[in-house]
Specification:
Helices cover about 30% and strands about 25% of the residues. The protein is built from 14 helices and 25 strands. The chain is globular, with a radius of gyration of 24 Å. One of its GO terms (molecular function) is oxidoreductase activity. Belongs to the FAD-binding monooxygenase family.
């Protein structure tokens, strides 16, 4: 059964960090414009509602992960998941955005009609198809697949007599007190889980195939806390936001331009925080260069502290097979375990699995090119949010929202109904949308749109550059084309 079609000026998909931010920008700029947020799950928060594993937190500081329009006022700059979730939900509640969210609506298809200059969007709700139309479609669903993480083949895992958990599906009442825990992985989730579980578990072992670069940051930013007392929340937030953007940019640029210097700095920092004689080069010296994959940040060096106290350890080896009591490694060593956590990574899903069509023709995402990293070539009145891989997600999400507002104002001011990026420059060559060597990206990047070799098709990773282009750059740049609905169609849609 299909419900009656309803029309909205703008339709946002996803009520997570990006979707709530997009709604705030939209309703602040256009208080009279109708919009709704369709959310597949039953709660606001996206990633921060989905992940419930011990110690879940951001590895970005909240002065940049927080919204530009809403200062982060808590003392901890590296915040835990529940605090971030409250921040998102408080933002939604204070602006009335929570009343615009329609939960349990999984969007499956969207069809653009050029004669009507509108999208017809289909969502599944309680087993029924709900159909809506909208002038502008804005996808804020991120790129994680929510129904399951990456699960590599683990030989003999069916023989294991203990408990196996993937962090994306953490059991609410799991008791690991006094138990031997093995966490398989070395990324952000693993380095978060190990110290978080170490205080209750008998021992936690992080089993990694290869090391990851890890840098300790203070959980509290003393400059931010001092400035907040002196200048107030708003002014302090703006200053600290730029300070942290500058620091993260410096670390990234140093990593890319002087990788040997950054490698040395990271190695020396690890040596200072680990016990004397610890095998740093075995467990904390990756084969790749810094920022070929995302740098992992640990607040107050909690991972190093857990290792120093003897509550946790790192083993760098490969799994030969599971046994009933644990794991046998390729080196011949055995790890006993009561609980195994497979922090083996995420799976990506472009546009939340949404299928697009333009004038009856299906859109094949890998055949499109991303315009400014936020729209698709040949797809009208459509935007999506993908954050930075080398900085906080929200820095880019805020800029995308600001650009969408500018674009809608431009359409209004010139009487246009449609905007569509067109790539007709033969000099533009294709590149991956995310030029990033992390396993979760490499496994799925071929299913995503392409990036281009030059502006405005290049997917940049510089906040300062994007700020100039998205907040202040020209809307009509030659690649973005505008048009009006035919007069006959406009007349047909007017009420009698």
């Amino acid at each position: 059964m299909t419900a009656t079609t309803e029309h909205l000026d703008v339709l946002i998909i996803g009520a997570g960090l990006s979707g709530v931010g997009a709604a705030h920008h939209l309703q602040s700029a256009f208080p009279g414009r109708t919009y709704a947020i369709l959310e597949a799950r039953e709660a606001i928060g996206g990633t921060w509602d989905l992940f419930r594993y011990p110690g879940v937190r951001s590895d970005s500081d909240m002065h940049t992960l927080g919204y530009r329009f809403r200062p982060w006022t808590q003392a901890k700059a590296i915040a835990d998941g529940p605090a971030i979730l409250r921040y998102i939900r408080d933002t939604a509640a204070e602006a009335g955005i929570d009343r615009r969210v329609r939960f349990g609506h999984r969007v499956v298809r969207a069809d653009w009609s050029t004669p009507d200059a509108r999208w017809t969007v289909e969502a599944v709700h309680d087993g029924e198809t709900v159909r809506l139309t909208t002038n502008f479609l804005y996808v804020c669903s991120g790129y994680y697949r929510y129904d399951g993480g990456y699960a590599p083949d683990l030989p003999g895992i069916e023989r294991f007599g203990g408990t196996v958990i993937h962090p994306q599906h953490w059991p609410e009442n799991l008791d690991y007190t006094g138990k031997k825990v093995v966490v398989i992985g070395s990324g952000a989730t693993a380095v978060t889980l190990v110290p978080a579980m170490a205080d209750r578990a008998a021992h936690v072992t992080m089993l990694q195939r290869s090391p990851t670069y890890i840098l300790s940051l203070p959980a509290e930013d003393p400059i931010a806390n001092r400035l907040r007392r002196v200048l107030g929340a708003g002014r302090a937030y703006a200053i600290v936001r730029w300070k942290n953007v500058a620091m993260s940019t410096l670390i990234y640029q140093l990593s890319r331009r002087r990788p040997h210097v950054m490698r040395s700095l990271l190695r020396k920092a690890a040596i200072r925080q680990l016990p004397p004689g610890y095998q740093v080069d075995t467990h904390f010296k990756p084969r790749y260069q810094p920022w070929d994959q995302r740098l992992c940040f640990v607040p107050d060096g909690d991972l190093f502290a857990a290792i120093t106290r003897g509550r946790a350890s790192v083993v760098t080896d490969r799994i030969a097979e599971f046994t009933e009591a644990g794991l046998r490694l390729e080196s011949g060593a055995e790890l006993e375990a009561d609980v195994v956590v497979t922090a083996t990574g995420l799976r990506l899903l472009a546009l939340g699995g949404l299928r697009l069509a333009v004038d009856g023709r299906a859109v094949t995402l890998p055949e499109t090119m991303a315009y400014r990293g936020m729209m698709l070539s040949g797809v009208p009145n459509f935007a999506f949010t993908v954050g930075y891989t080398n900085a906080s997600w929200t820095l880019k999400a805020d800029l995308v929202s600001e650009y969408v507002v500018r674009l809608l104002r431009y359409l209004d001011a010139h009487g246009y109904d449609q905007c569509v990026p067109i790539n007709d420059d033969p000099a533009v060559t294709e590149r991956p949308l995310l030029d990033f060597q992390a396993g979760y990206v490499l496994r799925s990047i071929d299913e995503f749109p392409k990036s281009g070799s030059r502006a405005p098709w290049h997917m940049g990773m510089s906040y300062a550059h994007d700020l100039l282009k998205l907040r202040h750059g020209r809307i009509e740049d030659g690649a973005m084309r505008f048009s009006r609905r035919p007069a006959s169609q406009e007349a047909a849609r007017q009420p009698a």
